[in-house]
Model the fold of this input.
Amino acid sequence: MNTSTVLKLVQSSNILAKCSPVLASQFHTSSALCRVVSGKYRITKKRDRPLTYEMANAPHYIAHRKSWNSWNTSSLKDGLRKSETAVEDEFIRRFMNGTWHGLVCSEIIIKRQFNHIRIAAIVRRAVSPTKMYFLIGYSEELLSTWIQCPVTLELQTVDSYKDVIFKYI
Done:
């Protein structure tokens, strides 16, 4: 390129920038900030915030160190009932937290296989065994009726919430 063509290009770009402030404002010179901050818990000054294993791993470790909270195939290509599955999963989580108020120590994992839903969680042994059996039957029966498919609860019990704590930050 000779100098006259370069000069014409510079002049045309200046004219373009003067005519269209939108085009002129799209050129950024700041450096990229490549920090993964979202989904992580901040460290407290006294390091007294308890975290479970699920909470201690950052979101980018899903499928490497930790698992998904919902197992289903509706999110695959040509999957059926994507939105209904998401709404049902949220309903199940809220129902479980409300029914088992203050007893659920971990995340509620929902696994769907064909027409069967399995719900896994860790709960505290703060109620009598008869009440625990009643809550299991009550939850399974109501969820089966509302969702119109068989529901099974797979619960593990611990003595206290401290048994689920993985580390403090």
Observations:
- The longest strand covers residues 116-124.
- The helical segments are 3-19, 21-24, 53-56, 82-99, 129-147.
- The longest helix spans residues 129-147.
- The two ends are 61 Å apart (CA to CA).
